[in-house]
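Practice problem 4.
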């Protein structure tokens, strides 16, 4: 570790100067102007050489200090294993470096990652069982090889995706390496100690440079460094798992998984979200765990510390559980429930904070509070010209004024309504799960396309959210631009065979139970619309903005009497119903709407 520290602090700053000399800038204009404005993706350029140098020094020490300190047999076995790690790291380093400089196709990166991962089972370092998790104590060799290759590819790619300008990826890998080092040292696992110490020798200096030196703020490890680190972490993960029941206690699988669980599960969530929204899986976005913490309201400076605390929580829980020899299957279930609970809480806090922000913007733009302070007449005239007279009392604006329509419920009633929605949505998500599964299978069998369709709508205080439905139309339903879902009537040619059945029985709306659970929607409200159509409605009647006071609903008062809309005339008529509901809504009104909706569905009324 000391060797790595010294080498890193000597080499890393000089390698950064080399990588910013001009040829590695992303933008040609920056190259011509010789401006240091681009994000430098070669912060990890020297990591593999430093790692190799450290390992060679560590393995050469026994020859210098005498074989009586460390047995020659151990050193020989360690040297053979390290050769395999070095070979895999070299492949990943070359591919990563090419990607940082010129770019590499996804297929080429996947092939290199696959070849490097296959080197582990070939060298007989692989997962052989799940150590009792889910009752699996033994698995065929070929199954273990497949699991090993997938695990290595997953961990390596996870580290690459974690790499970001805030340096959290390097920080988390430092914590992982530190835990692996302590465990290996405690149980006298020589090679694990050497490799984890060498890893810390490059990640700790990099993290220090990122934290305390301004020139490193826009420097990221890049694929050359992140693939190298990811591959080394994969080796440490498999090595400690293999030592379970030998030099280490039974159940080390769950100890190791507790260490890598947070970033792995978070990357899985991010990839799922990208696929669900139709975005490229490997293109970075602002949806990683650190970004969600910032969106939740935690200061950016405290975000890394918060994530490290979360990271250590899982590691400690798994370590204590294994050391006490409790059932590992129960531990796996606890980990999953803990992760789901944490993510659900984060999502709730994000929604709550964003709703407050949009509420403030809504009040300043449309609400009554914006006019109670008697703003200057110039501002009033501009607001009236751009948005009509909504929100302005009659005493302020003379002429064709628009009365402000307040929410009929008070704050206690609104909070009670939200708790009721949360409870019943949770229960119905469980009870209707067989229908979810059946609908999913039928849609997949029908045309093979995605079963869930999501679309951005505007909700409470104008906050965008994604509404979910079972897909009832063909994939090219909007190839000519945005269109209303019911514009084609009952025999809409855009409907699939299964989609027509689902829509006629209102089963396509089932996934909106998740929207209700998350707080984006309520059971009863107004039907949410896309901004494209809201802008058209606002041109005719700006009072639509008053609806932003409440959450949109799965069903509505307007749906009962106006049905689904397919023309602007129906949209404006629906708006009048929605505004009436806004002003008069109460628990009894909601119960009446809910009952009438149920009766209409039972008797097959089309709306």
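Answer key:
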């Amino acid at each position: 570790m000391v060797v790595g520290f010294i080498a890193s602090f000597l080499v890393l700053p000089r390698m950064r100067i080399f990588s910013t000399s001009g040829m590695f800038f992303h933008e040609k204009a920056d190259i011509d102007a010789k401006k240091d404005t681009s994000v430098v993706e070669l912060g990890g350029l020297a990591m593999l050489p430093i790692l190799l140098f450290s390992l060679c020094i560590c393995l050469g020490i026994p020859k210098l200090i005498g074989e009586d300190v460390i047995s020659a047999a151990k050193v020989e076995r360690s040297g053979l294993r390290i050769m395999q790690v070095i070979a895999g790291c070299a492949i990943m380093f070359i591919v990563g470096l090419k990607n940082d400089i010129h770019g590499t196709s996804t297929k080429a990166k996947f092939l290199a990652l696959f070849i490097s991962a296959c080197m582990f089972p070939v060298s007989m370092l692989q997962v052989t069982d799940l150590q009792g998790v889910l009752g699996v104590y033994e698995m065929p060799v070929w199954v273990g090889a497949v699991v090993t290759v997938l695990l290595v590819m997953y961990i390596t790619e996870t580290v690459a995706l974690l790499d970001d300008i805030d340096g959290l990826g390097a920080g988390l890998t430092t914590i992982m390496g530190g835990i692996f080092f302590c465990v290996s040292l405690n149980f006298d696992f020589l090679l694990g100690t050497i490799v984890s110490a060498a890893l810390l020798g490059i990640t700790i200096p990099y993290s220090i440079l990122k934290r305390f030196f301004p020139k490193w703020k826009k420097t990221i490890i890049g694929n050359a460094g992140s693939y190298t680190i990811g591959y080394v972490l994969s080796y440490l993960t498999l090595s400690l798992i293999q030592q379970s029941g030998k030099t280490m206690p039974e159940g080390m699988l769950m100890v190791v998984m507790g260490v890598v669980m947070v970033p792995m599960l978070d990357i899985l969530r991010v990839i799922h979200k990208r696929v669900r929204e139709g975005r490229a899986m490997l293109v970075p976005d602002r949806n990683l765990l650190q970004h969600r913490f910032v969106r939740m309201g935690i200061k950016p400076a405290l975000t890394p510390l918060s994530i490290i605390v979360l990271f250590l929580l899982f590691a400690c829980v798994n370590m204590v559980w294994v050391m006490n020899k409790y059932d590992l299957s129960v531990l796996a279930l606890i980990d999953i429930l803990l992760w789901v609970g944490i993510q659900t809480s984060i999502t709730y806090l994000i929604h709550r904070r964003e709703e407050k922000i949009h509420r403030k913007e809504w009040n300043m733009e449309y609400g009554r509070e914006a006019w109670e302070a008697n703003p200057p007449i110039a501002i009033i005239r501009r607001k009236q010209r751009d948005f009509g007279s909504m929100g302005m009392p009659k005493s302020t604006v003379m002429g064709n004024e628009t009365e402000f329509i307040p929410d009929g419920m008070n704050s206690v009633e609104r909070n009670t309504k939200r708790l009721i929605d949360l409870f019943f949505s949770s229960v119905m998500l469980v009870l209707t799960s067989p229908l979810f599964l059946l609908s999913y299978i039928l849609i997949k069998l029908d045309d093979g396309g995605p079963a869930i369709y999501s679309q951005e709508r505007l909700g409470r205080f104008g906050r965008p959210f994604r509404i979910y439905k079972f897909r009832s139309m063909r994939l090219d339903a909007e190839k000519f631009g945005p269109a209303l879902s019911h514009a084609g009537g009952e025999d809409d040619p855009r409907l699939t065979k299964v989609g027509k059945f689902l829509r006629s029985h209102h089963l396509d709306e089932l996934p909106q139970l998740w929207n209700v659970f998350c707080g984006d929607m309520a059971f009863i409200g107004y039907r949410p619309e896309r901004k494209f159509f809201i802008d058209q409605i606002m041109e005719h009647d700006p009072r639509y903005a008053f609806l932003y006071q409440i959450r949109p609903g799965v069903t509505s008062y307007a749906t009962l009497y106006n049905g689904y809309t397919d023309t602007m005339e129906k949209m404006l008529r629906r708006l009048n119903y929605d505004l009436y509901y806004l002003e008069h809504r109460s628990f009894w009104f909601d119960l009446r709407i809910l009952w009438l909706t149920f009766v209409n569905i039972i008797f097959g009324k089309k709306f």
